[in-house]
Design goal:
Residues 127-237 form the Acyl-CoA oxidase/dehydrogenase middle domain. InterPro entries: Acyl-CoA_DH_CS, Acyl-CoA_Oxase/DH_mid-dom, Acyl-CoA_Oxase/DH_mid-dom_sf, AcylCo_DH-like_C, AcylCo_DH/oxidase_C, AcylCoA_DH/ox_N, AcylCoA_DH/ox_N_sf, AcylCoA_DH/oxidase_NM_dom_sf. Its cofactor is FAD. Keywords: FAD, Flavoprotein, Oxidoreductase. The chain has 10 helices and 10 strands. It has 3 domains: 12-125, Acyl-CoA dehydrogenase/oxidase, N-terminal domain (Butyryl-Coa Dehydrogenase, subunit A, domain 1); 126-250, Beta Barrel (Butyryl-CoA Dehydrogenase, subunit A, domain 2); 254-397, Butyryl-CoA Dehydrogenase, subunit A, domain 3. The protein has a 4-stranded mixed sheet. The protein has a 4-stranded antiparallel sheet with strand order 2-3-7-6, covered by helices on one side. It has a two-stranded antiparallel ribbon with strand order 9-10. 49% of the residues lie in helices and 16% in strands. It starts with 11 loop residues before the first helix and ends with a helix. Residues 184-195 have low confidence and may be disordered. It is of the alpha+beta class. The structure holds flavin-adenine dinucleotide. Flavin-adenine dinucleotide is lined by residues 94, 98, 127-131, 136-138, 161-163, 192, 221, 224, 229, 378, 381-383, 385, 387-388.
């Protein structure tokens, strides 16, 4: 842990981790990225490699099978993976930050002992089921219910767009569900600022498989084709009362806290995407010739790439800043929102510019910049849209 994280003065152990993941991304992830994207197949062999490296356990203590690192270490890994394959990066991000972290933050000791070693090992994946058809940004509009029948929760409803929820190694889905009305620990203010509600929303652990739980057929997405995303249905799903995660009625508030952290992780992934576009463009602009000269010698191209580099760098400093505050135990909500905002926009802008630098080849799916062009849009939507980040920043600014 460090009080100050600068892009030029990273302590050795962080630099070594970044290099190890960079080498893995180049040698293992990059060669199969286009194939999995084309075939919309989940990269089991890559995930297994990441598991062997301990990446799924990066921020968790060794007593739970983790690597004893911190959240910033996870971010560095995400940045390196995001440079070459966003699908692989989001699989790790969702597995750790959304799948396992709620257990680590809010689980009791028995729950942690039962689930964290499996999730930290990467041999099993956890998913985070908050979004529903009628409530993404307005996640407090949850309609899924869980009622107690004796000492058993009975869950009914559906979730939408849930990452890592239908793979062969998915072992757990944590869902938010309405568990009552009013009373203590009632609904918190939602990201959408829609005000106070009366529902009590709790988080409940649903092991996979459980009777009545179904991961419906995967979505046909614009990008992140090798990442696993499903609608989920819950039809009288019965799990023990002890599967309540955290305090009764605090599920929604707890998930918002998880999303604050997750925004730093998504910012790191976005910086990777933005930097990946720069790296591809620098190589290409030196090789591709037009009118007798490498296109990188034309200022129009060189300046475009320079601006891309500046976007990636400034977005990186934004996520380092948010992570440093988080590691120091200081408030970081605004900085996380800023990092997510500028980094996701940097990724999208760089993907568009990189496609331009590549000309017609940039529109061919086999080129990494074309994949970044399709993949990057969701960075401005998932784990809080651009509009949500602006709302949070405006609110923190006193508006
Ligand atoms: C590939 C993928 C993976 C995902 N993975 C997960 C996952 O693992 N778990 C999970 O729970 N969810 C997941 N999601 C859901 C994702 O977090 C939501 O899609 C996102 O939060 C936006 O919600 P929505 O789609 O319902 O859009 P909506 O909330 O309907 O928003 C539509 C538009 O309206 C805007 N808007 C909404 N309210 C306001 C307002 N008050 N003021 C101004 N503008 C507003 C939004 O910014 C957006 O532009 C995933 C989504 C995708 C596409």
């Amino acid at each position: 842990m460090t009080d100050f994280l600068s892009t030029g003065t990273l302590p050795d152990h962080y630099q070594q981790l970044a290099k190890t993941v960079r080498d893995f991304a180049k040698s293992v992830v990059a060669p199969v990225a286009a194939k999995h994207d084309r075939e919309h197949s989940f990269p089991y062999e890559v995930v297994s490699g990441m598991a062997d490296m301990g990446l799924f356990g990066l921020p968790f203590p060794e007593e739970y099978g983790g690597m004893g690192g911190d959240y910033f270490a996870l971010c560095l890994a995400l940045e390196e993976l995001g440079k070459v394959d966003q699908s692989v990066a989001i699989t790790l991000e969702a597995g750790v930050s959304l799948g396992a972290m709620p257990l680590y933050r809010f689980g009791n000791d028995a729950q942690k002992q039962e689930w964290l070693p499996l999730l930290a090992s990467g041999k099993g994946l956890g998913a985070f089921g908050l979004t529903e058809a009628g409530g993404g940004t307005d996640a407090g509009a949850t309609k899924t219910t869980a009622r107690l029948d004796g000492s058993t929760w009975v869950i009914n409803g559906s979730k939408q767009f849930i990452t890592n929820s239908g793979t062969d190694i998915t072992k757990l889905v944590t869902v938010t569900a309405v568990t009552g009305e009013t009373g203590s620990g009632g609904l918190e203010r939602s990201d959408s600022g829609n005000g106070m509600g009366k529902k009590q929303i709790s988080s409940i652990l649903v092991p996979v498989p459980t009777e009545g739980f179904t991961a419906e057929p995967a979505y046909d997405k614009v990008g992140w084709n090798a990442s696993d995303t499903h609608p989920l249905s819950f039809d009288d799903v019965r799990v023990p009362q002890e599967n309540l995660l955290g305090e009764h009625g605090r599920g929604y508030a707890n998930f918002l806290q998880i999303l604050d952290e997750g925004r730093i992780a998504i910012a790191a992934l976005s910086v990777g995407a933005a930097q990946g576009c720069v790296d591809e463009c620098v190589k290409y602009a030196k090789e591709r010739e037009a009118f007798g000269s490498a296109i990188g010698r034309y200022q129009a191209i060189a300046f475009k790439i320079a601006r891309m580099e500046a976007r990636a760098h400034t977005a990186r400093t934004a996520y380092y800043d948010a992570a440093a505050l988080m590691l120091a135990g200081k408030p970081f909500k605004k900085q996380a929102a800023i990092a997510k905002l500028v980094a996701s926009e940097a990724a999208m802008d760089n993907a568009r510019d990189a496609t331009q630098v590549f000309g017609g080849y940039g529109f061919m799916n086999e080129y990494p910049v074309a994949r970044h062009y399709r993949d990057s849009k969701i960075l401005e939507i998932g784990e809080g849209t651009t509009e949500v980040q602006l709302m949070l920043i405006a609110r923190e600014a006193g508006l």
